[in-house]
Fold these 2 entries.
Entry 1:
Amino acid sequence: MSVAPLVVALVQVAVAVVFAPLVIGVTRQTRARLEGRVGPGVLQPARDLRKLLAKTPLRAAGTSPLTVVAPVVLLASSLLLAALVPLVAALPLALVPGDLFVVVSVLLVGTVAIALLGLDAGSAFGGMGSSRHMTIAALVEPTVLVAVYALSIPAGSSALPLIVAARRDHPASIATPAGVLAVVALAIVVLAETGRLPIDNPATHLELTMIHEAMVLETSARDLAWVDLASWLRLSVLLGLVGNLLLPWGVAGTAAVGPVLLGALALAGKLAVLAVLLATAEVGMAKLRLFRVPELLAGSFVLAFLAVTASYLVA
Amino acid sequence: MSLAGLARLIWRTGRIAEPAPGVPGRPDHDTGAEAPVLPRALRGSVQVRHVDAGSCNGCEIELAAAFGPVYDAERYGARLVASPRHADVVLVTGAVTRNMAEPLRLTVAATPQPRVVLAVGDCARDCGAFRGAYGVVGAVGDVVPVDLAVPGCPPAPADIVAALRQVTGR
């Protein structure tokens, strides 16, 4: 077993941790500019994180050790996700396969951790947020599985690094009906999974409309820093995955220093473009009514299913 | 409005935030009051939880303006949040009424250290027009320790922003 893919995975985790607050900073800054405001600057999420780490956590009376453990589990799942998903380099890890089932399971570990965190303090809004989050997760995970399955048919492997490498080596497979349908389905699902508009409003103050925010209402200081970093990592990693599936150029194929550096630069460019696009789309969009969310997610499942059908018809 | 219409409106409007005044000094230097000691850990990033302890909603309108696009308190690193657990600053408006005295104490206790309590408006500082009213317990300072106060009835959004900038130091 060679050490190189492991080193590259660690580099990927480091790059993702650096880029995650910046991606959030770029989306908030773009939104502020489009609203006519000046905005706090792209470094503000990093400052928030530093401040949260300096504060003393305050946990509600009667909470179990879960309140301490869940944010760390969530962060660990996000870091593992950053190691498994091909962001900088498309090198499969020998230790843990970057296979679609592994990626979906890692996503689910984080989802369950934060849902339990929402229930633990025993507040009404936390439980409501957890129940909504699990409902959405139940609708999202099948779509992720089916969409990645559709992408895996032309590549001949369900490992994400191999799918991205296959798309880079055969660009003709990007513009096929199956490829486009699967990536569109995946993009909708990424928005649902990371709590962005139109499924969830990350900037809301109304508890009744919250999903992600409702679960973390009782979380403070260091715990909140871990939860925030973990959800920012999730957004960046999944956006990076969509970016690499759409434009697989620049992703390193070897573990040499040059290609990995180029891969990191390419990732920065793709993430910046996607973050600006995401924020711009969000400005022109209202949050979907909660009862309409299953319709949107069912639509994305249909797209993923059509992608599988189309890829069999072509192949 | 169509998306194209919205895009045209955004393009035509451009930036409506007013230019930022220079970094504020201590506003207490002309009153001779002692400058408040504010925690250094909150430099650059401040999350604000607003508590209405019994306000007439005049201060709320000014507060909404302070965080709106024209004054844009967010550019100095201050942001409104939905939970005291996320907050660094508890911003209290209005004289403290009997029903809100205990919730106010609990909210301050639920805010992790280091924290700052900011009393906004004359009512929050010394009960203003409601001094001695039967439903009023007292000013904010009678219920919880106050670190910083903004005078005015209601205070101008620029004054609220200046007080928040003292905490963020930006």
Entry 2:
Amino acid sequence: MAAELTLILISTVLVNNFVLSKMLGLCPFIGVTKNVENSMGMGMAVIFVIFLASISGWVVNTFVLVPFNITFLRTVVFILLIAALVQLVETVMRKSFPALYKALGIYLPLITTNCVVLGSVILIMKKEYGFFQMITYGIGVPVGFYVALFIISHIREQLAMAKIAKPLQGAPITLITTGLLALAFMGFSGLVRE
Amino acid sequence: MAETTPPSTEKKTDAPEPRLVVTAWPHIRTPESTPRIMFSVVAALIPATLVGLYFFGSNAAWTLLWSVGSALGTEWLIRRTRGEKDTLGDGSAAVTGLLLGLTMPPSSPWWLSAIGGAFAIGIGKQVYGGLGYNIFNPALISRVFLLIAFPVEMTTWPIVAPPFPGLDVVTGATPLGQLQVGRLTGKGLGEAADVSLGAAFVGSIGGSLGETSALALLIGAGYLFAKRILTWHIPITMLLSAVLFALVFWLIDPHRYAGPLFHLLTGGLLIGAFFMATDMVTSPTTPRGQIVFGIGCGVITMVIRTWGGYPEGVSFAIVIMNAFSPMIERYTRPRRYGEVRT
């Protein structure tokens, strides 16, 4: 059990990193990584939401969708679920944790349409994970996302000083760097055999 | 320092040449310059290159010619189309091409080296604005790209056939390749157990063009140490952490895991530690940061070699640590005297 959970963590953070291997969630990855502070805020918000979304998605899937045999509604249900969840989290946070709410700022509502969240919830159901595997996956995916944001934001802060050609500045050079980073991370492939 | 050089006359033709240039201290002049350092690196790579040419013959020569030529050509073309100063003279493109050639399989087709050289300079370096701004080591990121894009060509290794060039090239596995086959088929060390460490030290084993001979690489590294172009921080920590990692697993089960000397002498660990990881642009500048960087390179190398899908992890490890380098730099910045820790 412990070994399997460790493998899931390594797989989601390094080998099948959502940004660097599946190329999901590129919009926040490019949008908010101009400086380190913002990307850390985004990363924390994503960790928080994916963790909750995977648990609630798993509960809904196991106790509603599967017993009533309506799993074809999965995608629609999960989109609604995530949107509702984010709204709920936002409301609760504004009242109870104003400091955290302020720190996350605009990123919290933006996550509603973040494909990393929907992707990870759907993948959990596709892999037919049990409860503990699901929890591990729900932590590993956003941590991998956080790691990718963390790396690229430091690189971008350094690139701000580079003499990059005009047409390549901003998003293009970030995409090129992401591609090279993805090449580098392919070195981890094979660490986890699925 | 680029900022402190007097404004050049070609940019502002109407401004008079400044007669008194006031710059910030220190006003110490050093004979070190980019071309001198690059020339020393080339000189340090000569022994490894010669050994490669001796063992692998004319194929190796063509591989090197194509990779260096393509690197130089791409550099020249890009600088020219961007209308910037020609930078062939600083020697960095030649070093990139040479390093790339030395990490290629000796029998690789000409177009492979040509693509590699162009990718290294074009995508690896000039996209970021040229020397000093690139994030990844150009030669290594290009090698990683080639390895993933052309896996067959990049892992076809000729058997050593000195010293007559042009003979039929027989292909075989590298020691690390044999080790991986043994690992994946559950045979423990497999054929890798028969690899002679003496041969690995001299260089008569399968492998990339310039990585096989530990002796030649050590001679080159010694030269760079003597000229103080290399400091101990990155190479020694990288080698030590890899050796310790290998030692622990070897002590656990010597029949399943290869010994530390095997890992040290085979594959690209030595050329990586001395010539790739120490690239001044893509590694941290502070000694503390360099130590973290070196340990990271060594450990990731061994993780990939021990559990990964590729037999060799040095190039991946260094490129991954290149990506972490700005982060390491940021958190190992030395504190100013009297600054309060926050």
